[in-house]
Amino acid sequence: MSENHSQDFVIRFAGEGGQGLVTSADAMARAAANAGYYVSTFSTFPSQIMGGPASSQVRISTSPVLSSGDSVDVLVSLDEYAYNNHREDLSDNGVAIYNSGEFQLPGGGQYFGIDADELAKSTGNTRAANMVTIGAVAHLIGFSLEEIDAFITARFTRGRPGDDEIIESNKKAIRLGADVAANSGFSVGTLAPPSPPDYEQIMITGNAALALGAVTAGVDFYVGYPISPATTILVWMEQNLVGQGRFAHQVSSEIEAISAIVGAGYAGKKSMTATAGPGLSLMGEGLGLAWMAEIPCVVVDVQRGGPSTGLPTKSEQSDLMTCLHPGHGDMTVPILAPGSVEECFEAGALAVNWAERYQGPIIVMSEFGQAEKGENIRKPDLDAVNVETRSVYNGSNGYARYESWGENGLSPMPIPGGPGAYVANGSEHDEIGDTTHLPRHHIRLTERRFKKMGLLNDAHIEIEDEGATAMIMSWGSSKGPAREAYERLKADGVDVGWLYSMALNPLPDEMKAALERANIVIVPELNYMGQWSAVLRQHGYRAESVTQYTGLPFKPATLVDRIAARVAELRTEKGKVLV
Amino acid sequence: MSNRNPEYDFVWCPGCGDFGVRRALEWALERHVAEHEIPQSNYVIVAGIGCSGNMVHLMEGDQPFGLHGIHGRTLPLSFGVKMGRPDLQAVVVAGDGDFLAIGGEHIGPAAARNVDVTCVVMDNGVYGLTKGQSSPTTEMGVTTSSTPYGKIESQMMPLKYYLTIGVSYIASHYSSKPRDLANVIQDAMNHKGFSIVHVQSPCTTYNDTYDILKGNRRKGIPGIAWEVPEDHDPLSRQSAEDLLDRPGIPLGLIYKEERPTLQDRVDEIAEANPRRTPADLLASYAL
């Protein structure tokens, strides 16, 4: 085994949906996180309630996890199909544990069987089968059983009479599994001692972090329609957005959702909805209304595979063009695309601030692979979130709402119940909101609507190693694997630099300047067309994509190979105008 | 043009029923403001797209707030206004095409929620702004620009539809009696829940139904509109159904049901579940 393997292990549980795969990966993740490691989970499953091939994995590391990794160190297969489907992902010295209560494999391979159900029975707790497996996994990676004990004690101490019994049987199950693994003689290494962070952490998924960020910035009106992989935001809001002055509700369609948040935004609320590609398509006209009538609201697009119904529970970044121009006509929508679970919180809060600040719609682009990924991240500092509220008109009646004040084209917004009654109008309008087709109004207001976007220049950016042969600029959920690849490429001496912007539209001025200076920008992105590099070229920058459209996130190793090969080519033709 | 904005480039045709509906709505708002001592600025008119929706720009006197949105979405827009700000009064003005065709999918959910919004639907049985296409309430067989060989879909019966899907306040009227119509609109606004005042508002250009509604003795046309009898019990669903089985256009309150609004239910939940602060929520993710 290689030495650095001990810094980092990937453990995958594969079988059918409904077999507790996510529970197992989650338990392993929490036990490791509690012990001071960095963890990241990733699951893939079919779009059905029960059954179908599914898997859930956890990556455990001594440093922050950027991607779901290249290969699997321990594969737990609950059925033969899962084994055959996932064995190719095993690393060279990886070990598979198979469910010998379900199927048998011939002798001689890097695997061993375990009948977890039968062993769980002997503990007197038939529900402890996943703990048997976790015990075996722990042995293989040299993870302390006492740390798992601590997790079990915390998980099952619920103030009920049977708690002690359940805790004891689970601890016993862990040891039964570890014994089988010890007897097999296999090991994939020993996990290095953790280097716990010096800051407080939370364990959270991307979707929950995004919702929490938005509520921290003051969202108090949420409606949505169930759609994978955005449903968990709706469920989160209905659970948590309660109390006086708040409203969270499931509506009948994405058309209702966008219309309702525009109505609430018009009435003065900070409003939000979340959807995926199909719902976003239905929201186009409503987003146009918010743009035209200048009404703050936030739409979250948790991307999945498209087009049409597409791949509801797979990874893809193919909604970019739709998000940039969701509606017909001369319009666009500002976009924030968080690149990690931690950034989901930041983007959720900033999107609400942006909507309030420029008085219009904002889209947050997340993605399936990031939405349900659980990670232990730095605990957000709520006091550090600067909560912004729109400029509200409080003069006398007879106000010209669409007359521009100041250089940014913005004017204070009257709120029903207050002064300055006007008609917020989706038809082109004059200063007071009355419909008009006169050129001077259409020219002035078109320019005003675009000009306001100049207020949105403060999103998180990263610029490193400028002047390199090629700058890597990924976006959204591909940031993690791209960053891991970038670090490996740098370590290998490949001449690459790094650009990242959480804001895709408008691009921060500083990022535009860096893009202008770049020799060429290489964009790893999960779509066929190379959407972000196309946008960059449209801006006049030299850019090309490294694409993947498998329904799965990038493996860092894939990016390392492809980018290294491209940079080698570029170095032989350096100085030319590329693309 | 309008009285307050000579540049406003929209006009109703002479004799349009919408003039009468506008007058009635202005009166109803005025009286509702006086009755409840609510400031005019607490009223939001959510307008559909079509001739009728332009009413929001043409209202005279003190201006309420207005939201002139997109075609067919008056109900979800007003739902957002009302559930976001329960202290506001939301009134929808829309035509038969906007409300019943493109926007038809929203009536059922609004009824199920019993959201406290009043709708004034102006039914002229035709698409006027786009110059005379058939609408859901156009009679079968009628020739319009989009039904050159006669309409081949059945005519929709909106009042029966509203009753079937659970609208808690249903009234029917026409534009020619703005004083009576104002009373009905005011009453609908006072109803706690989802109310629809369905108004026959003739299109003098494409579907002039004044004579058919009111009758014309000189031309020997009997008139199909009739006053809802004084002994009609609007609280009885059966009576409402019986009333709607009669041919013609009833004028008056057809059905009224007192039941909790969506806001009542939301308030119950809010009562039982105190506000969770971001700090409370964050604490639930502690390692």
Mean pLDDT over the residues of chain B: 96
Structural class of chain B: alpha/beta
Global Rg of chain A: 26 Å
* Annotated CATH topology of chain B: Rossmann fold
Shape of chain B: globular
CATH homologous superfamily classification of chain B? Thiamin diphosphate (ThDP)-binding fold, Pyr/PP domains
Q: Hey, which two chains have the biggest interface?
A: A-B, 69 and 56 residues
Count of β-strands of chain B: 10
Name of the CATH homologous superfamily of the largest domain in chain A = Pyruvate-ferredoxin oxidoreductase, PFOR, domain III
Q: Which range does the strand content of chain B fall in?
A: 15-25%
Key structural traits:
heterodimer, A: 579 residues, alpha/beta, Pyruvate-ferredoxin Oxidoreductase, domain 3, Rossmann fold, 4 domains, 7-stranded mixed β-sheet, 6-stranded mixed β-sheet, 19 helices, 20% strand, globular, B: 287 residues, 8-stranded mixed β-sheet, two-stranded antiparallel ribbon, 10 strands, 17% strand
Written overview of the protein:
The complex is a heterodimer of chains A (579) and B (287). Chain A is an alpha/beta fold and 579 residues long. Chain A is built from 19 helices and 21 strands. Chain A folds into 4 domains: 3-184, 3-Layer(aba) Sandwich (Pyruvate-ferredoxin Oxidoreductase, domain 3); 203-379, Thiamin diphosphate (ThDP)-binding fold, Pyr/PP domains (Rossmann fold, 3-Layer(aba) Sandwich), CATH 3.40.50.970; 391-456, no CATH class; 461-572, Rossmann fold, CATH 3.40.50. In chain A, 37% of the residues lie in helices and 20% in strands. Chain A has a 7-stranded mixed sheet with strand order 9-8-10-11-13-12-19, with helices on both faces. In chain A, helix 13 (341-358) links the parallel strand 12 (335-336) and strand 13. The model of chain A has no long low-confidence stretch (mean pLDDT 95). With 287 residues, chain B is of the alpha/beta class. Chain B has helices at 17-36, 55-58, 74-84, 96-102, 107-113, 158-164, 178-190, 210-214, 237-245, 262-272, 278-283; strands spanning 43-47, 65-68, 89-95, 117-123, 126-127, 133-134, 169-174, 195-200, 225-227, 249-256. Chain B has an 8-stranded mixed sheet with strand order 2-1-3-4-8-7-10-9, sandwiched between helices. A two-stranded antiparallel sheet of chain B has the order 5-6. In chain B, 47% of the residues are buried. Chains A and B meet through helix 1, strand 7, helix 7, helix 9 and helix 11 of A and strand 1, strand 2, helix 3, helix 10 and helix 11 of B.
